[in-house]
UniProtKB/TrEMBL annotation, chain A:
Region (Disordered): 89-116
Chief location of this protein within or outside the cell: cytoplasm
Protein name: PDZ and LIM domain protein 1
Keyword terms of this UniProt record: Cytoplasm, LIM domain, Metal-binding, Zinc
Localization per Swiss-Prot or TrEMBL: Cytoplasm
Name of encoding gene: LOC101858262
First and last residue of the signal peptide: none
Alphabetical list of PROSITE patterns matching this protein: PDZ
Record domain PDZ: where: 5-86
InterPro entries to which the protein is assigned, alphabetical: PDZ, PDZ-LIM_domain, PDZ_sf
UniProtKB/TrEMBL annotation, chain B:
Chain coiled-coil ranges: 263-290
PROSITE patterns given in the database record: ACTININ_1 (PS00019), ACTININ_2 (PS00020), CH (PS50021), EF_HAND_1 (PS00018), EF_HAND_2 (PS50222)
Pfam families in alphabetical order: CH, EF-hand_7, EFhand_Ca_insen, Spectrin
Domain EF-hand: 743-778, 784-819
Family to which this protein belongs: Belongs to the alpha-actinin family.
Cross-referenced Gene3D superfamilies: 1.20.58.60, Calponin-like domain, EF-hand
Domain Calponin-homology (CH) positions: 27-133, 142-248
Designated name of the protein: Alpha-actinin
Length: 116, 889
């Protein structure tokens, strides 16, 4: 997994537009829960991004509210170091309607491949 | 749009065609509608209430105000002038507003309202009531009127003497009103004391309570209700709709409170489970940390009792200390799985145990413990065997030493004696012969001294615990042996020097001496053999000893002849002495007396039957050992087979057939019960095994099973059942909470099992891909398809084990496309309790939630700091997101 640096900017008084999740006190990684469309975070952060550092401060060992405070006190520009996993959206390959077990489907695909 | 309103539009036209209104109904409607309007207008201040419905709406001002209050919207600014056209304009604004809500106002004109037309005014107010108070009551796509009726029927259904069929006659006896109140607020009236016979009293009771406790003003007159043949339907509907709004608001708050309670309970329970996991994990790890060094310590105090004590301690560890810890470990893993499932199902972040307390840490520590334990018992037993042999060897050493020391006693003095310088010739000759005899005797003893030294050497090599005493004794014997050798040489030289002077031989004595000494030596050897210590492990070995003993017994006849010969020599001397009247001199050639030979011969003959019985006892002991081996083997073969069968059967559950999860769970519970019921067999086997060990039996050729392999098999079986049950329970949990049907579950399981060719209960990536395709997933055979599949793999196998379990598969198949945002739901629920405000107070929380949950919220909620804050306002929004480990930025 590679680390990426992102920088967010906002107009004074506006919110960043994303929801932070996790922290040491929740026994889980600090990550992005959701992003509000059209907000400063939109296009830079994605749901599921793991936040490894806020500015120069690594997040390991930070409680949720400590991380929250760090971001709040950053002013109108904030840098994150994030790790981005693969997207978890599978709607384009999901079957439509209820799932039905049809073993021949796999065989058909195999045959088509052999045909080519 | 129009169709939706058909229900009451139709009615309106009908009423219009009728043209006139029953005077009694008109009277009722005026009272009721006035009260209904006031119930809304009073919210804007007492000065805005109306007294006369056809008068007070004429200028349109209060009409506009009424519409603003009930719709929550703003109407255009009213004209403040007092002229007729101002009034008409205002009434028109009100009518336009009503029309803008999709209501057709057939034949109601602003001018007639301004003129104070009663019929028109009442019609308009009814239109408003229908649109704003009743239309929202849509139950299962019925018209507004039918919706309200259905609501009344449902709410009064449990009350036998109430039957709501309409909005007039059904309400005359007042019981329907009382039932509605009792259903929602049972504490307000004692319903079962009411009677149909007292309609007036019932109506008054209901109306009083509604006014006092539900904030619904009186809109109907009890006398009118009772006295009119058919009460006015619209009046009753207007009043009943107020009940609906009063109660449905309460119901909404109740639903919200219930949702919050549910969410908080989940949180509290999860926190409890995490604490329990941490506690169990700490306890177990601490126990393993304390126990391991003890198992790794492979030293003993080098004595038998000390080592036996350690074996006892180990048996206690295996039987009483380890099993509960194994249970703890299984419990720990299960509660971890349950917790993770719960967290996932309740949309909470996954639980990450404290550093060093992960499930894998526990498994590693446990593995370490078993590694330390492995071979420990075997080592102890072999140590015992070694010590026992050592003990035997030491005993043998002492026995040989005793014999030797007894022989050596006085030899030095004898060799140093100057007796040959003072005796006669014949005596000297005898002394010389005697010395020769002694030398051969000495040579004969050389072997024994070498044996003693060899045994002492072996004891040193085998690290016997009391080796110091052994060495000292051996040293003493060897030193003395050297001295004896030197002294012997010296004495022979002295005797040879004197030989030239002395010569006389007593043939008889000589003969005796020649025969008695070897015989005596032979007897010493025989005695030693007869008292020889032995250690054997099989009946065959004992039989070997018995055979050797029998061979020895066969030589006794010849020895007896030799004995008779020797004794007869002495008897001859005695006979000669008696015959010639002389006292025969002592035999100069030997220190041996006939009596010594006789005594020793007697001892040898006595030792023979004694040896017989010792060997016989040993034979019986070995036969008993054989019996113990067979006893253990017979039982072990049955139990071992049983365990293997059970393991196979447990492993096959859920793999074949289409049995439901509940059936699988039931089967597993039966297995669990069967295993518990089978425990006595294991215990019986443990007893046999202890007997076997106590008899010092170390191998058993009648069975391939050892106690150790059976214990491992038994524990595997227990673990397999517990693990399978946990898996099935989690599947049930997943299925129920995600609302998957049994049929859908079967599709998942059938496809999974179909591709799980080798029945490992997990799929390899290739199998998993085929499975997904068979379930209709469109995974193409190109780069894109491979990328999609790798993404799926990163979800179902985040730790890259190279396998997909059924649970992960199930979880993937049932995950929702869009994450349900439960933090949002909780927030929405609090918003309802807070009456749409962005903050909530401790007072509302205590009023709406059970005490402990209200306090849980109050303690954790931060003060609300928005511009519209009131003193004591609490921030429920950040609290709701915090429940899920989230916060908005």
């Amino acid at each position: 997994m590679t680390q990426t640096a992102v920088q967010l900017q906002r107009h004074p008084g506006a919110s960043w537009g994303f929801r932070l999740q996790g922290g040491r006190d929740f026994s889980s990684e600090l990550s992005v829960k959701k992003v509000q469309p059209g907000s400063p975070a939109d296009g830079h952060l994605r749901p599921g991004d793991q936040i490894v550092a806020i500015g120069h401060q690594p997040t390991s060992g930070l409680t949720h509210m400590q991380a929250n405070g760090l971001i709040k006190s950053a002013g109108n520009v904030v840098q994150f170091t994030i790790i981005r996993g693969p997207s978890t959206d599978f709607s384009h390959i999901k079957p439509k309607g209820p799932v039905k077990f049809s073993p021949w489907k796999y065989n058909q695909q195999q045959q088509q491949q052999n045909h080519y | 749009m129009d169709q939706e309103y058909d229900g009451y539009m139709e009615e309106e036209e009908e009423w219009d065609r009728e043209g006139l209104l029953d005077p009694a109904w008109e009277k009722q409607q005026k009272k009721t509608f006035t009260a209904w309007c006031n119930s809304h207008l009073r919210k804007t201040g007492p000065q805005n209430q109306i007294e006369n419905i056809e008068e007070d709406f004429r200028n349109g001002l209060k009409l506009m105000l009424l519409l603003e209050v009930i719709s929550g919207e703003h109407l255009p600014k009213p004209d403040r002038g007092k002229m007729r056209f101002h009034k008409i304009a205002n009434v028109n604004k009100a009518l336009d507003f009503i029309a803008s809500k999709g209501v057709k106002l057939v034949s109601i004109g602003a001018e007639e309202i301004v003129d104070g037309n009663v019929k028109m005014t009442l019609g308009m107010i009814w239109t408003i009531i229908l649109r704003f108070a009743i239309q929202d009551i849509t139950v299962e796509e019925l018209t507004a009127k039918e919706g309200l009726l259905l609501w009344c029927q449902r709410k009064t259904a449990p009350y036998k003497n109430v039957n709501v069929q309409n909005f007039h006659l059904s309400w005359k006896d007042g019981l329907a009103f009382c039932a509605l109140i009792h259903r929602h607020r049972p504490e307000l009236l004692d319903y079962y004391k009411l009677s149909r016979e007292n309609p007036l009293e019932n109506l008054n009771t209901a109306f009083d309570i509604a006014e006092k406790h539900l904030d619904i003003p009186r809109m109907l007159d009890p006398e009118d209700m009772v006295n009119s043949a058919k009460p006015d339907e619209r009046s009753v509907m207007a009043y009943v709709s107020s009940y609906y709004h009063a109660f449905s608001g309460a119901q909404q708050a109740e639903t919200a409170a219930n949702r919050i309670c549910k969410v908080l309970k989940v949180n509290q329970e999860n926190e409890r489970l995490m604490e329990e996991y941490e506690r169990l994990a700490s306890d177990l790890l601490e126990w393993i940390r304390r126990t391991r060094p003890w198992l790794e310590n492979r030293t003993t105090d080098n004595t038998l009792p000390g080592t036996q004590r350690r074996l006892e301690e180990f048996r206690d560890y295996r039987r009483s200390q380890k099993p509960p810890k194994l249970e703890d470990k299984a419990k720990l893993e299960n509660s971890f799985n349950t917790l993770q499932t719960r967290l996932r199902l309740s949309n909470r972040p996954a639980y990450l145990p404290t550093e060093g307390k992960m499930v894998s840490d526990i498994a590693n520590a446990w593995k370490g413990l078993e590694t330390a334990e492995k071979g420990f018992e075997e080592w102890l037993l072999s140590e015992l065997q070694r010590l026992e042999r050592l003990d035997h060897l030491a005993q043998k050493f002492r026995h040989k030493c005793e014999i030797h020391e007894e022989w050596a006693t006085g030899k030095e003095e004898m060799l140093q004696s100057g007796d040959f310088k003072r005796c006669r010739l014949n005596e000297l000759k005898a002394m010389k012969k005697k010395h020769e005899a002694f030398e051969s005797d000495l040579a004969a003893h050389q072997d024994r001294v070498e044996q003693i030294a060899a045994i002492a050497q072996e004891l040193n090599t085998l690290d016997y615990h009391d080796v110091a005493t052994v060495n000292a004794r051996c040293q003493r014997i060897c030193d003395q042996w050297d001295v004896l050798g030197q002294l012997t040489t010296k004495r022979r030289e002295g005797l040879e020097e004197a030989e030239r002077i002395l010569e006389r031989i007593d043939q008889l004595h000589l003969e005796f001496a020649k025969r008695a000494a070897p015989f005596n030596n032979w007897m010493d050897g025989a005695k030693e053999d007869l008292m020889d210590m032995f250690i054997v492990h099989t009946t065959e070995e004992v039989q070997g000893l018995i055979d050797a003993h029998e061979q020895f017994k066969a030589t006794l006849g010849e020895a007896d002849k030799e004995y008779s010969t020797i004794v007869s020599l002495v008897q001859e001397v005695t006979r000669l002495g008696q015959q010639f009247g002389i006292t025969p001199p002592d035999n100069p050639y030997t220190t041996l007396h006939a009596q010594d030979i006789t005594n020793k011969w007697g001892e040898v003959k006595q030792l023979v039957p004694h040896r017989d019985s010792t060997l016989q006892q040993e034979m019986m002991r070995q036969q008993n050992n054989e019996r113990l081996r067979r006893q253990f083997a017979a039982k072990a073969n049955v139990v071992g087979q049983w365990i293997e069968n059970q393991l196979d059967a447990v492993a096959s559950i859920g793999v074949t057939g289409r049995s439901s999860l509940e059936e699988q769970l039931k089967k597993l519970q039966q297995f669990d019960k069967a295993v518990i019921g089978y425990k006595p067999n294991m215990e019986e086997l443990e007893r046999y095994n202890q007997e076997v060990q106590e008899a010092m039996i170390f191998e058993n050729r009648y069975t391939q099973y050892t106690m150790e392999t059976l214990r491992v098999g038994w524990e595997q079986l227990l673990t397999a059942i517990a693990r399978n049950m946990n898996e099935v329970e989690n599947q049930i949990l997943t299925r129920d909470s995600k609302g998957i049907s049994e049929a859908q579950m079967n599709e998942f399981r059938m496809s999974f099992n179909h591709f799980d060719k080798n029945r490992t209960k997990r799929l390899e990536p290739k199998e998993f891909k085929a499975c997904l395709i068979s379930l209709g997933y469109k995974i193409r055979d190109d780069k894109q398809g491979e990328a999609d599949f790798q993404r799926i793999m990163s979800i179902v196998d985040p730790n890259r084990t190279g396998y997909v379990t059924f649970e992960a598969f199930l979880d993937f198949m049932t995950r929702e496309t869009a994450d349900t945002d439960t933090a949002e739901q909780v927030m929405q629920s609090f918003k309802i309790l807070a009456g749409d405000k962005p903050f909530i107070t401790a007072q509302i929380l205590r009023q709406e939630l059970p005490p402990d949950q209200a306090e849980y919220c109050i303690q954790r909620m931060a003060p609300y700091s928005g511009r519209d804050a009131v003193p004591g306002a609490l921030d429920y929004m950040s609290f709701s997101t915090a429940l899920y480990g989230e916060s908005d930025l």
